[in-house]
Design goal:
homotetramer, about 120 residues, alpha+beta, Pantoate--beta-alanine Ligase, Chain: A,domain 2, four-stranded antiparallel beta sheet, about 35% helix, dihydroneopterin aldolase activity (chains A, B, C, D), MtpD_C (chains A, B, C, D), EC 4.1.2.25 (chains A, B, C, D)
């Protein structure tokens, strides 16, 4: 019979996923411009760093893409989506460190775990 | 027969309401602590100031209430709701200036227009 | 000296605006497909009808636009934004009835009050 | 040297976490009452089932807790938080099935992976 109890590394990856889903869906839709992008990026970092096991979050807005999207439309701002930012975060859970990232792949903001390291 | 077309002052109040609903429901639920409250407050101000006809937004976090709520629970943060902030905003629309506020009244965050001034 | 106290009609329009801002920013970013659009539309109606002074909300998803947006991308769903729905709502506040709508105008989801009627 | 590349099971757990964070932070703050709880629960299920690798989501509102919370306050509704629902979801990713749940533990909505099964 197979043991299906999650390992600490699996639970750590689950925690990393929670942080990404939280960050994305809490803030997607926020009115954003190149000028206001730094403050929302900073708020996202500090908000998610409050969550359990989250030791670092870095949100890097892509102000060039923001400016281009705004230039195409009739408004002076747009709504925040994954195409306008890169995110990296680090989780530590029961001695396991997970680094995960969100980057644009074929125009779709792909979230994925990058490394899983168990402390010796 | 009665004309039911909204006046400029009524449309300006509608705009003020949009900004309050946006601000509240975009950010309610954000993980927040006394330490991270200033960055989310700043991001809320700058995000909503992007919206049309919105000339000023001031979000004042109530860090004492935040600290008290966190002290009651088992986590080191809580979720942002209207009880943890005061908000004032100013709209200008077609020569009408509306000031509106959100304050706690009987434990419920009440949003209301405070003044409607038509420029001479 | 001018009285700047908001009228009941102005306060009613403010309430209508709150509902639109709430509806939009609570649900923008939700993963949506033509198949799931009816359930989110229904939930939006019932959620906002809970709010004070709100007597009716109608959310009509534009499943053709949804299908077209999905066909353009690499995923089987998209994120809800104002371009994928029409909304109409009715507020009653202190004897004033306000009807407001959100419709696409030049590709931008425009929210506006449509009529303001004071009960005799 | 240690290989830190995530396993399929770890990536599957990351995916499960994303869905929980998405579900929670997309919908937290929604105005909810015992009457409207079924429609928001249904919308949450269908919205998150749109996301990649998500084969099933079950959201069970706790209408007794909702009614009790509303009875304590001055409004006829409250805002959705994790204390008002149980959630179970199933992810399938590269032959790995992950079941994860959210339940109240000491008043805090705890999300955790329950089982990780690799298809033979």
């Amino acid at each position: 019979m197979t043991d299906t109890t999650p390992t600490d590394a699996e639970a750590a990856c689950f925690e990393a996923g929670i942080k990404f889903g939280s960050l994305y869906h809490q803030f997607a839709g926020t009115p954003v411009s190149p000028e206001s992008a730094p403050s929302i990026a900073r708020a996202m970092e500090e908000a998610i760093e409050n969550q359990p096991h989250c030791v670092d979050v870095t949100v890097t807005p892509d102000t060039d893409r923001l400016a281009a999207a705004i230039a195409e439309g009739s408004a002076s701002y747009t709504e925040l989506t994954g195409e306008f930012m890169q995110v990296a975060l680090t989780i530590e859970y029961e001695g396991v460190r997970v680094v995960a990232e969100m980057e644009l792949v074929d125009g779709y903001p792909l979230m994925q775990p990058v490394s899983v390291t168990e402390r010796e």
